[in-house]
Amino acid sequence: MDRGDLHKRIDLELNAGTAREDIFKKLCSRAAVGQEKKIALAIVCIPEAQLRKAFAKRNLVLCLLLIFNGLLSLLIEFPLDPQRHIFLSWVKIIMPFILAAFCYSFYGAAYRFMALCSLLELFEIGGTAFNLPLTDLAGLKLLVILTVMVLSWHIARKVFPHLGVLGLRKDQNGNYLL
């Protein structure tokens, strides 16, 4: 069962009012051995309906900030300097657009990754700020990155509380928190 089918099944079950634990047991009984973590991650990455509705405006702001961040990266990086790593420049340009797509679909695992990418980009800007003058675009990008980092971490903590920084959280008995 691929990720898309799994998410569709889980969405249907959640919309029918089935509890997350019951969905987990039902899908694990049908799945191959060793698929429990994949199923638990898919369940945890889908937000509850009331949380999705409550955080919809903040999520939209985050999507727009990610798109704006990608456009700023495009303006700052072009024309590409052959002396620098061109591949890294392309990654810095394309990554915010990919993250905006995950943000638009409210995919839980992407929010902590957004915060991590923003933190790495913040360190990269901080490292070059000592060597290069901070232009208006770089200053605006710094402000956007800080806002993306804080907002993505906030949404991740509030909407997806059972996702840890490095994976799924478990209770004292070793069962996944759903």
Describe this structure in words.
It is a single chain. This protein folds into two domains: 1-45 and 160-178, no CATH class; 52-159. The longest helix is centred in the C-terminal third of the chain and has 24 residues, at 136-159. The two termini are 20 Å apart. It has eight helices and no strands. It is mostly helical and 178 residues long. Keywords: Membrane, Transmembrane, Transmembrane helix. The chain crosses the membrane at residues 60-80, 86-106, 138-156.
Low-confidence stretches: none
H/E series, N to C?
A: HHHHHHHH
Quaternary form: single chain
Beta-strand proportion = under 5%
C-alpha Rg (nearest Å): 19 Å
Total strand segments: 0
Return the structural class: mainly alpha
Q: How far from one another are the termini? A: 20 Å
Tally of individual helices? 8
Helix content: over 70%
Please summarize the sheet with the most strands.
Answer: none
Mean pLDDT: 82
Shape: elongated
Could you give a short description of this structure?
With 178 residues, the protein is mainly alpha-helical.
For this entry, give a set of tags.
single chain, 178 residues, 70% helix
Any chance you could write out the topology, listing elements then pairs?
Blueprint: H1 3-15, H2 20-30, H3 36-44, H4 49-54, H5 56-77, H6 86-104, H7 109-129, H8 136-159
Helix pairs in contact: 2-3, 5-6, 5-8, 6-7, 7-8
